[in-house]
Amino acid sequence: MTEPKTKCGFVALIGEPNAGKSTLMNKMVGAKVSIVTHKVQTTRARIRGIAMAPNTQIVFVDTPGLFRTRRKLDKAMVAAAWTGAADADVVVLLVEAHRGITKGVEMILDGLQTRIGGKQKIALAINKIDKVKSEVLLELTESLNEKFPFEQTFMISAEKGFGVKGLEQYLCDVLPEGPYLYPEDQIADVPMRMLAAEVTREKLMLRLHQELPYALTVETEHWNERKDGSVRIDQVIYVAREGHKGITVGPKGEGIKTVSMMARKELAEMMGREVHLFLQVKVRPNWENEQERYTEMGLDFKDTK
């Protein structure tokens, strides 16, 4: 008996902010490798999650949401998304069923025509199907396929798992034959220190709600393995203004204590060991103009031009 041939390839998930890309990748990987909040534009770098299916390794590229750019950070995020799509074997466009064909979706459809080389297979996944009636779904599917020749269309709910298996099977069918690129037990190819910073940033966004704009970033400054098997992680939260520091820390330091507790708990569960997490908030007015900050986020500073 000959061993079945293995398949491996890259799948870029693209769409508007909050379309459900991170949720879908986490669902298919079977673990949380990209941050998920109710806020838009939470994913900044192209985080790769690795899913194993029968004889197939699917390497997901969870790209930042595509939107009209204003700030330098926005430009770098959108450039990262299009680069991730252009480099992939398969591109999956996620569209929210209840929002339909927005101006943002129209912009992405134009980009698929002009910014993708044409060698990739491009599929459509209409997400959050539980929010609309079947006739609305049918009409939306027809309209989108008239605007772009998608290889396949899938109706899914990334959060609840509806239709996700069908999409996974399609990816297994179309990805190229080849050896696995990562060990079978590896779920992400971002450094753990970057993943840890993303976890803390997620907790900050959940905690602060509307109080703080997106002008903050988190970096893991030190990572020390201890002899007892635990790890000490020192992170810096950079904010743009002095007033933002007070909001982040909270009255009597309660805000930052809560964030630290939530992040430490999730990191301990993720790594299966004790975590000692220490957070420090620093005001850095021009952090969005510093190349080092972009490198730490996995973004290319030259894309801000």
TrEMBL record:
Q: Name one GO biological process term.
A: ribosomal small subunit assembly
**Which protein is depicted?**
GTPase Era
Region labeled G1 — which residues? 15-22
Q: Does the keyword rRNA-binding apply?
A: yes
Residue span of region G4? 127-130
Region of interest: G3: 62-65
Which gene underlies this protein? era
Era-type G domain spans which residues?
7-177
Region G2: what ranges?
Answer: 41-45
> Keywords of this protein's UniProt record, alphabetized?
Cell membrane, Cytoplasm, GTP-binding, Membrane, Nucleotide-binding, Ribosome biogenesis, RNA-binding, rRNA-binding
Q: Which family does it belong to?
A: Belongs to the TRAFAC class TrmE-Era-EngA-EngB-Septin-like GTPase superfamily. Era GTPase family.
* Positions bound to GTP: 15-22, 62-66, 127-130
The source organism is Paramylibacter kogurei
Question: Which Gene3D superfamilies does its entry note?
Answer: 3.30.300.20, P-loop containing nucleotide triphosphate hydrolases
Q: Does the keyword Membrane apply?
A: yes
Oligomeric state and interaction partners are given as: Monomer.
- Domain KH type-2: residue ranges: 208-285
Q: What does the protein in this record do?
A: An essential GTPase that binds both GDP and GTP, with rapid nucleotide exchange. Plays a role in 16S rRNA processing and 30S ribosomal subunit biogenesis and possibly also in cell cycle regulation and energy metabolism.
May I have one GO cellular component term? Answer: cytosol
Q: Where in the cell is it found?
A: Cytoplasm; Cell membrane
Which Pfam families does the UniProt record give? KH_2 (PF07650), MMR_HSR1 (PF01926)
